[in-house]
Amino acid sequence: MRFFQTPPVLPWLFPKVWWKRPVQDKTIFLTFDDGPIPEVTPFLLEQLALYRAKATFFCVGENLIRYPEIAKKVATEGHRLANHTHQHVKAWKTPPQDYLRQVEQCQAALEQIGAGNNQVKLFRPPHGQITRAHLKLLQPDYQVVMWSMLTYDFDVTLPPQTCLEKAVTGIKPGAVVVMHDSLKADQNLRYVLPRLLRHFSEQGYSFKTL
Ligand SMILES: [Zn+2]
Fold this sequence. Notes:
Blueprint: H1 9-13, E1 27-33, H2 41-50, E2 55-59, H3 61-66, H4 68-76, E3 80-83, H5 96-112, E4 121-123, H6 132-138, E5 142-144, E6 149-150, H7 160-170, E7 176-180, H8 186-202, E8 206-207
Parallel strand pairs: 1-2, 1-7, 1-8, 2-3, 4-5, 6-7
Helix pairs in contact: 2-8, 5-6, 7-8
């Protein structure tokens, strides 16, 4: 079972988490998780630039340390860098204190490249896994961001046409859309992203950072 659109019960259970954003106009919030990596992130930047689209990148701390130049380029081009733990750990398998350390380590890596001093620190939990205990520790300092639309770009068994079709029919103003700058998602992403950008630009939408 694939949930392209977030089931309404989740925002109801976790109202402080961002699932989609209130907007007055046709705005979409694209987000890219797990990078930056040299194989995929530069391609995303090229595509986004063609449409003057801005996006939010939830980065893995280890990748920030490995590829600081790519991370800086993402920031320089007007996108927002945000926190996705240091080693992409799962909340359901990591005790809250250890998890917080992972988040703080990633935040330190963001600060290292000059991208950590936003007023609101955004954090997205890997795999969308969270518990109330983890939230309690995080929420004083971090705004937790989930999504309203998951493209399943990382699912190599899914035809890219299906990813695109689900995104095109499911995205509404204020949508928070998840894609991935990861090797697994590369194939679907190269098909979906250019078409998605073109489609929604033609419909009068703009793409902004969270
Ligand atoms: Zn992730």
